Amino acid sequence: MKKLVVAVLVAFSFASLPQLVHAQDGTYPPIQFFSSISRDKLLEVLKDDPKFANIDNEALGSPIVLQVRHATRMTAGGSASLMTSALLSGSTLGLIPVVSNDDLIVTYEVLVHGIPIASFEYIENFTDADSLYNSNMHELEGDALAWAEGTVETFLQELNDDPKVQDLIDEYRYYFADSPY
User: Is residue 75 classed as helix, strand or coil in its secondary structure?
Assistant: First the structure.
């Protein structure tokens, strides 16, 4: 009876070898991607990392989702400058530009079945001067866009160091080692 138990245990240990080999290739499982910032550019930079070979904005049904979104938060000085310059711009029929000073916040969030497991936030302050008539307040342009696109490298470094994300990837590989993702 003992020989049978030992034989079964040995067989199960050899059955887990493909799992160990697959876990060492380093690629993440399929990840669905959403972004409010130049989606194609960020997706291209993420796919340059070999771990993100399976990330796609059309990976529908994937339990793991990476969301990248941006928001602005007005500073105290930015509020005063915006109000003053808007009044001056309005009184001169738009000859004087509207000046704003906001913090741009870029957030990378990893979700599993809609529940956030990791969030990475990057903040930078920007001052902008726009025409009263051509103001495009919701789109990123120029330096702000370049900075937001540059946060990907920092995100990748922090993601590799996050223990919750690594536990998630290890658990995914444990249960789905034989899948061809």
Answer: coil
